[in-house]
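Task: fold both queries, return tokens.
Query 1:
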Amino acid sequence: MTLQQSQSTVIFVQSTAHWEAIQQQRAHLIGVTPPTTPTIESSQSKIINRKPKQEPPTRKKTSHLIGKEGSRRRQRWTNKHPSAVLYAEDLRPPGYETKAPKYDVGLISTDQEDHEKEEETDNVEVKIQALPHNLSRHVRHDLKKAHISKGLVTNYESQLIHFISIWLNDTQCLENACLKIQVASNNQFERYVLHTMCRYYGFSSFSKTNDQNQRLTYICHPAYLSYVIKHNAEIDYSQIENWFMPEKSFFEYLFHSV
């Protein structure tokens, strides 16, 4: 009696589709219908109605802004577009300006008192004499900041004072009515210092180019300005009487004043 050895077959399944094909072939040979695999409902068939989450009202919508929060790019964009980042809480409540008084009661009373005092002093003539050295404070500050040479100021001021002394001795002499100074280096800043010095002493000054292509600075009293420019003989000598020499020199005003 001989025993028949059972034979086994090894099948290498490559994929799920391959395994299903083997099952169908085996069922066809045996005559049995292949087991049907349960159909998996697709996630697309299920429709879930989800409502969008509502953002809290205090949250700022920054989707239209550029750059991240706190970045330099965001700060630059905010500085260039200030109207795009206005918030309601930063605005002034409506009706505030209309309810608030335009003027304080105390200010109104002081204005009325000042107005009454002005009416009392209308009949009194007040003579205001302009100082020759009526220069603005920022002019002196700019000159000191430029670190100008003290020798330069001394040189020009000595020539100007010498001219003033000669001019005061005989104001009727028109030959001494104007001073001509030529800046050696033809520097615009030095001419600016000279013009400022003339304003301090109450004199008029202007620069003009002569026939030799030299830039000259002309200095004279305002009463002689029309005579020097237009050669007009009409001179108002009453303006000369109101002129007086400043207490401090331009050098002291520029370097020694506090």
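Query 1 returned. Query 2:
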Amino acid sequence: MPHYVREYLKTVFTFATKAMFVFFLVLILVMLAFAQLFRQSQQLQDPQHYRVQGTAERKVTPDTIYLTVGTRVEGSDIVAIQTEANNKINAAVKAIENLGIPKENIRTSEYALNPEYDREGRDITGYSVNIEVRVTVEDATLEENKAGDVIKVASGNGLNEVRSLSYEVSNREEILEELKLEAIEDAKGKKDAVADAAGLRLGDLKSVEEGYYYPYYDNFGRAETVSDGAAAAPSVQISPGQSELSITVTLVYEIL
């Protein structure tokens, strides 16, 4: 056999040997990784833990109302429509402040000036200004109906579209903490009853898992138009109604 053939076969054999070594090394590493994942999954599904759920709920009445009022001003004179838009904002904000709403709870949330084009989309035929004012009504009650008064005076001063309306409970976190303790007590009561009936002997509490549900009502995107000059009309009655705040906790105990 020629020398160059022997050298070629030797090179091929050496390369094949190294390739096989790398292949088996990678295979071993993959098997070790799968073994580790399997052990972890077994730990997560460890039957030596007892889980019990507790719940607590409460009816709450939202006391904070967020609403956005606005309008659209159109015309061919860009300065004139900006002046008109500014006048409407200033008049509406002043009227809302006169209701006792703090200045920090009133802000211009949108002021957009845009050109208007013809059907072909080439020539500018005029301009439009879209304006919005967002108002936060705190300590809202059905008797005072401040949100309805805000809509009334805003529309009376040119902001005749209700762009959004939503409700919230101001002390939600405080209520959730109270409900969490109630849910834990509920779970503890179930734990003793079920464990005794099943003949289980429980050890230490290993973990506490929690989740809560609170509906957030938002009519965003439903712009309702109120006729101009509505300042003389009665206020719109705004009633957030009641909603249910609930929390669920899961106590995880060790089984001895």
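Both queries returned. Flag for query 2: The radius of gyration is 34 Å.
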